[in-house]
User: What shape does this take?
Amino acid sequence: MTRFTTLYGAGPGHLLLLVAGFAVAGYAALLLLDDPSALRILVWFVGVALVHDVVLFPLYSAVDRALTTVSGRLRRHGRIPLVNHVRLPLLASGLTLLVFLPGIIRQGEETHLAATGFDQQPYATAWLLLVAVFASTSALIYLLRSAHAALTGDR
Assistant: This one.
C-alpha cells in the first residue's frame, strides 16, 4: 500500500476520483463532438494550452524567479519582502484581463450593443483603472509596512 500511496497521492480513493473525473470529461467531450462547431472549440483549447505552456508559463516563471531573487536580496538587507506586493496586483490584473478581454477587443460588439444598449468602449479604460487601483493599493500597503517596520525597528 505504501508504494501505491507514493505513486498516486492519497491512495486508492484519490485514484478512483481521478478516473471518475476523466470519465466525466470524456463523456462531455463526446457530447461536444455532436456539435458542428466542435472542431473550432477543440482547436481553440489546444491553441490556448500551447500558448500557455510554450509562451506564458516560461515568461511568468522567469519574472517570478527574478522577483523572488530581488525580494530575497532586499530581505537580507533588512527590508520588507517585495514579492507578494507585486504578485498579487499582477495576478488580479491578469484575471480581470481575462474577464474584460472580449470587451476590450470589442468581440461581439453588435450583440453587446443590442443586448445592453451600451458601447464596449469603456472596457479598456475600466480595466486600466482597476490595474491602477490594484498597483497603487499594493504600493501603499508596502510603504505602510516599511514605515511601520522602520519606526518599530522590527525588520
In short: The first helix runs from residue 2 to 8. The mean pLDDT is 83. The chain has six helices and no strands. The two ends are 47 Å apart (CA to CA).
